[in-house]
Sequence to fold (664 residues):
Amino acid sequence: MKTYKQLGLAALAAVTIVACKPKGTETAVSGDAAQRVYVAPGKLDEVYNFVSGGFSGQVSVVGLPSGRTIKVLPVFSQHPENGYGYSEETKPMLETSHGFIPWDDQHHLSLSQTNGEIDGRWLFANANNTPRVARLDLKSFKTVEILEIPNSAGNHSSPFLTENTEYVVAGTRFAVPADGQDDVPIESFKQNFKGYLSFIGINKDSGEMDITFQIEAPGFNFDLSHAGKGKSHGWFFFSCYNTEQANTLLEVNASQNEKDFIMAVNWKKAEEYLKAGKGKKMPVEYAHNKWDEEKHMATSTIKKEVMVLSAEELKDICYLIPCPKSPHGCDVDPTGEYIVGSGKLAALIPVFSFDKIQKAIANKDFAGEFDGIPIIKYEAALHGEVQKPGLGPLHTEFDGKGNAYTSHFVSSEVVKWDIKTLQVLDRQPTFYSVGHLMVVGGDSSKPYGKYLVAYNKITKDRYIPVGPELPHSAQLFDISGDKMKLLLDFPTHGEPHYAQAGPAELFMKDQVKFYKIEDNKHPYVTKGENESKVVREGNKVHVYMTSIRSHFAPDNIEGIRVGDEVYFHLTNLEQDWDVPHGFAIKGARNAELLVMPGETATLRWDPIKPGMYPMYCTDFCSALHQEMQGYVRVSPAGSNVPLTYHLNNKKDNAQGPVKEGEVK
Ligand code: K7E
Ligand code: CUA
Fold:
């Protein structure tokens, strides 16, 4: 919830400071908490928790209940730790229609589902700033695809998905003019700015993404969304704020209306219109980046067209439901009947009924329209309101036992309530100012329940202090009983927003342990030490290099000249789990490579002055890891030192390139 910081809501902030310091922080922890979170040495966690990294651009894998960060997975930001976004193979993953972008702001995650249940196949992640959706393969835990979203800005209501992973959606947080038609006065907001909702189709087998269609909706700010499930499968629900359509000082001007909207989208109907040829092709530009598992490299393609359906023209795709007041979270319960809107400035939580929405549509129980889109009467759609839940409700998750849990930023608490009766059942303070919360499997049809994690914005006194910026904080609650029990605090990487989690068994089967060297189709692969070589093509030098415990082949290279572009194509010949080798060379202006067993990766190196340049392995791979090193001699431009390479003083190509199998 960076928005509060950005908008600088002075009044809210004042409330926060007073309200975010609940009393009795020590007594909030129950007696057996230590036992409940203790994962003994040699034992494994029960749950995989995938946590968004916010302004880090990455995703963390956290084990629950221990709260230990197991790994940070690079997604939208360069990651010097393993060379993601620095190696020649991974650079295309970060290409966009704006060129190479080394960073983004990552807020929401969705685990793929089959029949409404988490299936452990893929993890989808959104990029807010330069709108993109990424797909991670949960066999390799690698980012394997990134798709840019045209006609969008601030891709916030994303990447929420339908119950069979038919679609992942991406709604624009900023209303914007269409791409290519955007050189217009900002004051023409009401005429020219629109809200585009992208429906990204997912290939059932490969998981590959493609934008099937976009819906052009009124120029609101689409904030969050969730798909219908069960009876409401076929529908999507988006919260919108700034229905005032203000374009300046939004903290005041977008908080005028008593009610904004939740937009209900009948995407099955949209599919029918698409089939009937009602879509319009729009010229746009967006990047589609794909990782090739056999070639161990990514490609980036610019796509030029998108299909757009107009919500104004095609009457029965979209309906607006009034929702108080600047709604943020928009969450659907496991049965698909209840849609929870969380107005960040409201003192109640409205819960809408899918059946009632359908009835209201059939009876045309409307209170007018907005840009041609019918507005359903609030009361006609409403199941009821949770009264006095707390201040600043943001996000809601479910335990599958009829309970909902809503985070409250301003009053800094998690509130448990009964979905049917709307009675508040329990409240627990958070330390401090909770944003998102997550129940294990809590947005699926069958939540696993048991644990709830609150992702908090302010840490203050929770950890040993580390200067002006403190880590963000997560808090683990046991929700198996009637009352929530606080078990654990743990610091997080970046700024977590949403998270997803599922039982560990789902993610532990069929993981990639290494890549078979015989399947490696990288164009610069070196499948054995005797194939290693150095080839000059003008000022480009290609080093076909291998690594195995504990040496590189070759390990000495001479005849490199200032002005050369040197490409180290390192193939890791190891065929065993957990034996990567690293590669670094002095003066390299990118990062190291961390090459997985059986994989090939390339580091580009442009030496700018003559010298002796050591290179070495960066990952402690064996007892003789420290011996895993070599030299590259760089001579002045125009020097006639012959290009040679050696291992154990054997094999060089001083007389020209070595033929296969030949040792000189
Ligand atoms: Cu509430 Cu970006 Cu989902 Cu943050 S958002 S908390
Ligand atoms: Cu290879 Cu250290």
Observations:
- Residues 1, 107-108, 156, 224, 328, 394-395, 435-436, 497-498 surround K7E (ligand 1) (CB under 6 Å).
- The longest strand covers residues 297-310.
- Residues 1-22, 657-664 have pLDDT under 50 and may be disordered.
